[in-house]
Amino acid sequence: MPNNTPEFFSQAPTITVHDELADFLGSCQDGLITYNYSDAVKLAGHSCPTVAATYLITRAALLALYPDSIAERGKLKVEWRDSQKSGVTGVKSQVASLITGAAGDNGFSGLSPRFVRRNLLSFDAPIENEVRFTRMDNQQSVEVSANLESVPMHPVARALMPKCLAGQASHEELKAFGQAWQTRVRTLLLEHADDAQVIRVVDA
């Protein structure tokens, strides 16, 4: 990311995974890939509570499934409760896929027959929580969801949003809105990344 992005992007927790395919093809040393919040922002094209929460949801799932080792990218199944066209589920799934490697029917088909990523991502799953992550080696699963009620929108952002959306805000108001909007994202990433009341993980 350019260095004119908010400073807290680089302060957010990082996620390190091992990708066997990347290791096999010499893409990175020892197949280790470290993702940061800026990577999720690059993918989505913007920073918002949805992108941040999904980043943290994925992080929490990997920590729960691999408590004593580095998570294995490409060896996880990700199942979303809602349809991929429902609300922002599509955006969330893309962020999770970036980190886990799980892909739909357009994903990598593998190399004779290793490293398959195809059909590890699905929707309309019969689960109670937002998303289920499953390790393919031992079938251990967790379900994760985000509860953002305790991280409310900044009052300035709430007040300015209608005016900004209507195209009636001044340059100063648009800037104030953006700064207030990112305040909530910052709070979520820096103060609630490990808050079990916000990022909820249950065994599945």
How would you describe this protein?
By secondary structure, the protein is of the alpha/beta class. The protein has one domain (7-148, 195-203): Tubulin/FtsZ, C-terminal domain (60s Ribosomal Protein L30, Chain: A, 2-Layer Sandwich). The chain contains six helices and eight strands, in the order E-H-E-H-H-E-E-H-E-E-E-H-H-E. The strands form two sheets. It has a five-stranded mixed β-sheet, with helices on one face. Strand 6 and strand 7 (141-146) form a beta hairpin. Helix 5 (155-165) crosses helix 6 (171-191).
Would you summarize the structure shown here?
36% of the residues lie in helices and 17% in strands.
Descriptive key words:
single chain, 204 residues, alpha/beta, 5-stranded mixed sheet, 8 strands, 17% strand
Helices and strands in order:
Blueprint: E1 15-19, H1 20-24, E2 32-35, H2 37-44, H3 49-65, E3 71-73, E4 76-80, H4 89-100, E5 121-122, E6 131-135, E7 141-146, H5 155-165, H6 171-191, E8 199-203
Parallel strand pairs: 1-3, 4-5
Antiparallel strand pairs: 1-2, 4-6, 6-7, 7-8
Please state roughly what percent of the residues sit in beta strands, choosing from under 5%, 5-15%, 15-25%, 25-35%, 35-45% or over 45%: 15-25%
Overall 3D form: globular
One letter per element, helices H and strands E, the order comes to EHEHHEEHEEEHHE
Question: Sheet with the most strands?
Answer: 5 strands, mixed
Uncertain segments: none
Q: DSSP helix count?
A: 6
Order of strands across the main sheet: 5-4-6-7-8
Stated plainly, the CATH topology is called: 60s Ribosomal Protein L30, Chain: A
Radius of gyration over C-alpha positions, nearest whole angstrom? 18 Å
Distance between the termini: 36 Å
Q: In the CATH classification, which architecture applies?
A: 2-Layer Sandwich
- What share of the residues lie within helices? 25-40%
Oligomer: single chain
Count of distinct structural domains: 1
Global mean pLDDT:
95
The total of beta strands comes to 8
What structural class is derived from the secondary structure elements? alpha/beta
Let me know the CATH homologous superfamily: Tubulin/FtsZ, C-terminal domain
Q: Given this structure, which CATH class is correct? A: Alpha Beta
